[in-house]
Design a protein that fits this description.
11 strands, 7-stranded mixed sheet, 8 helices, 303 residues, two-stranded antiparallel sheet, 19% strand, alpha/beta
Length: 303
């Protein structure tokens, strides 16, 4: 009799379980070529629209010791999440610029069909990892002690922790389970224009920062894709980044030595809108390359 009751009750028990949505989350971080300097007005129609199947939490980007850093709120992905974007945690103010997020989302939707996707973004133009000689742009050094002792790493943590704490990111009444799926990092230029010593430290600085970022997502095996810095050559001596090759060496070493890491090298073929930043086509291609690389790393982990 008990067995019959269990059989009869089980379907109702299963139906009574609250529905939950699983959403893959990718972190986008770095400096200006991650922040995004593409022009929205020049986007192709296929990208110049709101994507209601991809969500984004974009942390407010500011200089070190500014306590508004990292404020944000979940929203649908659309153009305007490039440089000039801002958020007070209640309202997101879109800009006239975009970064890698638009084309990356489109490609990821092809690679992960019928799956919900989201980005957590915090990037700061001009920021270095090393805090020595960081000027007013900011540094990611985890042990930063300047001023109030608050820097880009702290804003990263605020962005991620606040984003991951939201149980229903799209407000549809269904609980969302956020699954960290990868870290995408485009940075290094501002560690290559100061001293040889800082440039030589890039591998060690990057390794430590990425380990801490993985810890923030509570996944020591989280795949990482980095973009290799490049040089427009738009300077009197033909080099914008004085010690660029040393940082590039550190990036290549990181991709070679560390597990679950890939490097995107197509940046060396991109054209520029100014001496520091890629043009629209560069940002669009970089987003596709990041999507392909992080997808392959995750696929590799399964085997």
């Amino acid at each position: 009799m008990k067995s019959i009751l269990i059989v009869l009750i089980m379907p109702f028990f299963i139906l009574a379980q609250p529905k939950k949505d699983t959403i893959r989350v990718f972190y986008l971080g770095g400096q200006s070529n991650m922040e995004g300097f593409g022009f929205v007005k020049n986007l192709p129609d296929s990208l110049n629209k709101k994507n209601k199947n991809v969500f984004i939490y974009h942390g407010n980007s500011v200089e070190d010791n500014n306590e508004t850093g990292g404020l944000g709120k979940w929203d649908f992905l659309e153009p305007g999440h490039g440089t000039g974007f801002s958020s007070d945690g209640k309202v997101n103010k879109l800009s006239d610029r975009f970064g890698v997020e638009l084309s990356m989302a489109k490609k990821l939707q092809e690679l992960y069909p019928n799956q919900k996707l989201a980005f957590i973004k915090y990037a700061r133009n001009g920021s270095s990892i090393d805090s020595v000689g960081t000027t007013g742009f900011g540094a990611w050094e985890p042990d930063f002690r300047g001023g109030k002792g608050i820097n880009q790493y702290d804003f990263f943590l605020k962005t991620v922790n606040n984003a991951m704490a939201v149980n229903d990111i799209n407000g549809d009444g269904v609980e969302d389970i956020l699954i960290p799926t990868g870290i995408i990092w485009m940075q290094g230029e501002s560690d290559s224009d100061k001293t040889e010593q800082i440039a030589n430290q890039y591998y060690a600085n990057l390794k430590r920062l990425m380990e801490l970022m993985k810890a923030a997502f509570r996944n020591a095996d989280l795949p990482i894709v980095i973009g290799k810095i490049s040089d427009s050559g738009d300077d009197t001596d033909g080099k914008v980044w004085r010690f660029g090759e040393l940082v590039q060496y550190g990036q290549e070493k990181f991709a070679l030595v560390e597990p679950n890491v890939a490097i995107v090298r197509t940046t060396n073929s991109y054209k520029y809108s100014d001496r520091y930043h890629y043009d629209n086509n560069g940002f669009i291609d970089l987003g596709k390359q990041f999507a392909n690389s992080i997808f392959l790393l995750n696929a590799k982990k399964k085997h």
